[in-house]
């Protein structure tokens, strides 16, 4: 493994650690209230976050005071929630403990890391030459794909499933957060 790949792995783990800490704090405050989100609502939440990033990139100004990086963090956490919801289904009530939620979080965060390592090996750190705005556009494209798959009831002919799109959203958002951290 190259030194650059090792750096990427460390940076990815650092960003996921930051996201995990925020997720755990929100679990403390709200519990696993997101368990009631149906897939389409979760997709719309991802859409809102990604559209805000694109809006801020274009307008270069935030009237709310929060920047782009916190939205990438939100996309990472909602992407992991999406994976949990896909594999566990949604619920009418909060049906898991905070501890169970954290175990699921760690499972899917680790799967995203392992996927990134495989892809980063094959693509040879290509993400480092990309602009942050491209990550945003790719994330929005993935969300549109998810919407279409949902509209088709999951009945696709040749496409990856919703879970693969969530994984890609998580990884692009991590890359965006890394790049924004490096630019400071």
Q: Using the CA coordinates, give the radius of gyration.
A: 16 Å
The helicity comes to over 70%
Contiguous runs where pLDDT drops below 50 for at least 5 residues: none
The global form is globular
| Helical stretch tally | 6
Summarize this structure briefly:
The chain has 6 helices and no strands.
Task: List the topology elements.
Elements: H1 3-30, H2 39-59, H3 68-88, H4 98-123, H5 132-151, H6 162-183
Helix pairs in contact: 1-3, 1-4, 1-6, 2-3, 2-5, 3-4, 3-6, 4-6, 5-6
Describe the protein's architecture and organization.
The protein is mainly alpha-helical and 184 residues long. It is 75% helix and 0% strand. The protein is built from six helices and no strands. The chain has helices at residues 3-30, 39-59, 68-88, 98-123, 132-151, 162-183. The protein is globular and about 45 Å long. The two termini are 27 Å apart. The model has no long low-confidence stretch (mean pLDDT 93).
């Amino acid at each position: 493994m190259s030194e650059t790949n090792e750096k990427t792995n460390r940076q990815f783990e650092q960003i996921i650690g930051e996201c995990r800490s925020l997720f755990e704090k929100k679990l403390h405050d709200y519990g696993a209230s997101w368990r009631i989100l149906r897939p389409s609502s979760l997709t719309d939440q991802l859409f809102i976050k990604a559209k805000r990033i694109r809006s801020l990139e274009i307008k270069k100004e935030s009237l709310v005071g929060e920047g782009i990086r916190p939205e990438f963090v939100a996309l990472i956490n909602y992407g992991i929630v999406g994976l949990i919801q896909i594999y566990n289904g949604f619920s009418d009530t909060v049906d898991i403990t905070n501890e169970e939620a954290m175990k699921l979080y760690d499972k899917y965060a680790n799967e995203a890391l392992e996927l990134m390592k495989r892809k980063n090996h094959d693509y040879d750190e290509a993400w480092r030459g990309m602009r942050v705005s491209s990550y945003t556009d790719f994330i929005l494209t993935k969300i549109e794909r998810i919407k279409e798959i949902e509209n088709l009831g999951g009945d696709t002919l040749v496409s990856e499933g919703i879970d693969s799109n969530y994984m890609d959203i998580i990884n692009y958002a991590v890359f965006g957060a890394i790049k924004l951290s490096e630019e400071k």
